[in-house]
Amino acid sequence: MESDREYIISCWHCGAEYNVFDSTFCSHFEPTPLCLFCYKCSCGAPVDYREKILKNASPEFFDMKKKAIGAIEMKLGELLLSAGKITKDDLNIAISMQDEMKVKLGEVLVRMNLITPEDLELFLLDQKTIQEIDMGDSLPDPFLVEKIGPEFCLKMGMIPIEIMEMEEKKILNFAIEKKEDLMRIKLCNELSDYILLPSLGKPDEMRSLLRKVKAIKEVEDILLLK
């Protein structure tokens, strides 16, 4: 359903003109409108382009952006909850403090010492930068699966590919099916010793590999029972 309101802008990426109020905002931490034609946001646009959009925008535009920010911040709260970083009570207190302090939820959580600035920075990562990888007919490396833990791999939907050691640092190269899984993995204490290097696998290939990881876990469980 098209909006009665109108704010026509030209997409910085494809040049098409569209009504912002018929569009939605992206899910980046500082959300910008999505072009109705190429579906690109303007987060990567030149600064003067973004400033011009804000300068000519109506109060309704900023209300729309505020709602988008609210949805993103709630997503942050949900991710931190699922990762065990905060409790529901922590989140409720942070939300009420946010209203008083007039700052973003992530900043409140950092000030409350519930998360670190590094935890917050993980959420700010642009997940579109994850490279795609062709897993083909490859098999999961049993040694790597065992090292990371088959149960953990299945829970996170990840396939470990390689562990590289550079000086005193360990780099874990792994594949995931969905970009949204990266935040959950990065917030897990189990991988805190690693620098994480994610790739994005094709859904059918990832599901096939995860079934093989499940088989590795089942063999492990049988051996433990003996």
Distance linking N and C termini:
63 Å
Instruction: Show unreliable segments.
Output: none
Global geometry? globular
Mean of residue pLDDT values: 83
Helix and strand pattern: EEHHHHHEHHEEHEH
Biggest sheet, open or closed, and with what strands and sense?
Answer: 4 strands, mixed
User: Percent helix among the residues?
Assistant: 40-55%
In total, the number of domains comes to 2
The chain-level structural class is alpha/beta
> Per DSSP, what share of the residues sits in E-state strands of 2 or more residues?
15-25%
Number-wise, the strands total 6
- CA gyration radius, whole angstroms: 21 Å
Arrangement of strands in the largest sheet: 3-6-5-4
Write the topology of this structure:
Blueprint: E1 8-10, E2 17-19, H1 47-55, H2 59-82, H3 88-101, H4 105-111, H5 117-124, E3 131-133, H6 142-148, H7 150-156, E4 158-166, E5 169-176, H8 181-186, E6 194-201, H9 203-225
Parallel strand pairs: 3-6, 5-6
Antiparallel strand pairs: 1-2, 4-5
Helix pairs in contact: 7-9
Entry summary:
Helix content is 46%, strand content 15%. The chain is α/β, with parallel strands linked by helices.
Supply database-style keywords.
15% strand, globular, four-stranded mixed β-sheet, 226 residues, single chain, 9 helices, 2 domains, alpha/beta, GMP Synthetase, Chain A, domain 3
